[in-house]
Each structure stands twice: as structure tokens, then as C-alpha cells.
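Consider the following assembly input.
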Amino acid sequence: MTNQTAKVNKMKEERTYRDDVFDVTRLIPAGRATTYGHIADYLALGSARMVGWALNKSFDTGYTIPAHRVVNRKGELSGRAHFSPPSLMQEKLEAEGIKVVDDKIVDFKNVLWIPADELHF
DNA sequence: GTGATGACGCAGT
DNA sequence: GACTGCGCCATCA
């Protein structure tokens, strides 16, 4: 067991705001997308940066979550650089029926999924 | 302990 | 509508 694995196990034991972010992200239905701000608002994180930070660490923790369905408020794939290859994010979105042009979701408001509204919380 | 950084958002111009 | 500056909070060097 590597230090990395031990670190992951520790993170799995302790439930932090990251787990909440992962949980909400997994609830996003295929073909839809949401924003960092809406997730931050739904979880009352106080800052959208925390959501992006949590998703960034999600790769390190080994969690497999549809992070490609989370974009910034303009519908831009601002997190694509953290995928390997970066084009993977767009490919996954297009595979789910979401059209992406110039690293931006086409008709974003139509595919926007708001947790606070959809989950009736 | 302190300063810098980050997959962002909002208000002001 | 586009650009800039500031705030947000956790993590890392």
C-alpha cells in the first residue's frame, strides 16, 4: 500500500465537502450539465472555487465522477485542461448529446441542470 | 504561521 | 457586452 493509497483511504473515511460535491455531480443526468456556482450554492460552500478544487482532487482520490458535466457559468469547458487528453471532456459531452463548439456548450441554458431546482431542495 | 494558488462568480466600469 | 478587480475558502510550499 502506497502513501497515496493510505491518503485516499483516509479521505474516504472522513466525509468532507468534497464528498458532497462528488455526490451532487453524480446526480447530474446524462445529456445535462451544471455550473460550479450552482453546486456551490446548493451545498452552501460559499465559493465556486471550492467546487472546482474538489473536482480537481477527485482525479487524485480515484473517484470516477462525471466531472465533464460541470462547467463554469458561461458554459465554457474551463476544466478540460485537467482531462487527459483535454479533448476527452468535449468528447464525453458530445457522446451524451451535448453539442460543444469552441470549448463552449451550445444552447447552454437548455441543458443546464440546477440541483437546487431539480432536487426540490 | 504566512503568502501564493486555483476546473469561479459577481459588481463595477 | 467585454474587461477588470475583488472575494471566496481550502490546500500547498
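Chain A has seven helices and four strands. Ask yourself how this observation constrains the way the partners meet.
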